[in-house]
Write a structure and sequence with these properties.
Elements: H1 28-36, E1 40-41, E2 48-49, E3 54-55, E4 60-61, E5 65-68, E6 72-73, E7 78-79, E8 83-86, E9 89-90, E10 95-96, E11 100-103, E12 106-107, E13 112-113, E14 118-119, E15 124-125, E16 130-138, E17 141-142, E18 147-155, E19 157-159, E20 164-165, E21 170-172, E22 182-184, E23 189-190, E24 195-197, E25 200-202, E26 207-208, E27 213-214, E28 223-224, H2 236-246
Parallel strand pairs: 1-4, 2-5, 3-6, 4-7, 5-8, 6-9, 7-10, 8-11, 9-12, 10-13, 11-14, 12-15, 13-16, 14-16, 15-17, 16-18, 17-19, 19-22, 20-23, 21-24, 22-25, 23-26, 24-27, 26-28
């Protein structure tokens, strides 16, 4: 598809302020240069690419994308709309969806991030892995083909290939003084609303039941269940309503 270039208005610098390299307004010539090299820039007027950043031919920058610092966007990758990259490395064919902030991290080939994801420094998302909406990674390695699709905080964590992280999973990495690591093996399944109290490990192929709080290591291929037993009292709700109706 042919790249589109429009006029980009230069914003004057504020008096007395020095603009760091790559942090000033994007020049029309910079975006034209990228387009000439085969980069698709959908809306030049809302797109910023730092001078020291690299965007390879075949990559696509959607509207309202900021590519800052020494970020790299590789061939076939699609970023945006409304995404910010700061010193991030986006692999071939990867996708960074709407409203994501990625800083000092690596997204490997074919992986997908977002929408509404926050990837913090020293994180790596493996090839074909998926990080979904409202997920935050900090110093976390998500292995090849692994997925954390919804509503999770994963900090100081290593997650093996093909592992599933259920919605609402939290790795509790901070004890108020020090940070601790969580290790989750390959092919493991972590159910929804699981709390992992670091330091702790979950072995390859292990299964952690939804709603569990895990404080001890889980061996490979084991089931870990750490939640209160459900109690059902038949007729309790009906009796309660009857008593309420009797009150004056």
């Amino acid at each position: 598809m042919r790249a589109t270039i429009a006029t980009v208005k230069r914003t004057p610098r504020a008096k007395g302020k020095k603009v760091p390299p790559g942090r000033g307004p994007a020049r029309p010539g910079r975006l034209r240069e990228l387009a000439a090299r085969g980069v698709r820039v959908e809306d030049p007027a809302s797109t910023f690419v730092a001078a020291e950043a690299t965007v390879e031919a075949g990559a696509s920058l959607r509207p309202f994308v900021l590519v800052e610092g020494r970020s790299v966007v590789r061939a076939g990758a699609v970023v945006g709309p409304f995404a910010r990259l700061v010193d991030a490395d986006i692999g071939p064919g990867a996708r960074v969806l709407d409203h994501c902030l990625l800083t000092g991290c690596v997204v490997e080939a074919g992986a997908q991030v977002g929408p509404f994801a926050h990837i913090r420094p020293e994180s790596r998302i493996g090839a074909g892995a998926r990080v979904g909406n409202f997920v935050e990674l900090k110093k976390t390695h998500l292995g090849e083909g692994a997925k954390a699709p919804h509503l999770s905080y994963l900090g100081d964590t290593s997650i093996g290939p093909r592992t599933n992280i259920g919605a609402g999973t939290i790795t509790c990495n901070y004890d108020g003084v020090k940070k601790h690591r969580t290790t989750i093996g390959a092919g493991a399944f972590v159910g929804s609303d699981v709390t992992l109290i670091a330091p702790v490990s979950v072995g390859d192929g292990a299964f952690v039941a939804a709603g569990s709080t895990i404080t001890q290591d889980v061996p490979a291929d084991a089931l870990a269940l750490g939640r209160a037993r459900q109690v059902v009292k038949p007729g309790w709700a009906k009796e309660r309503r009857a008593k309420q109706d009797e009150k004056p």
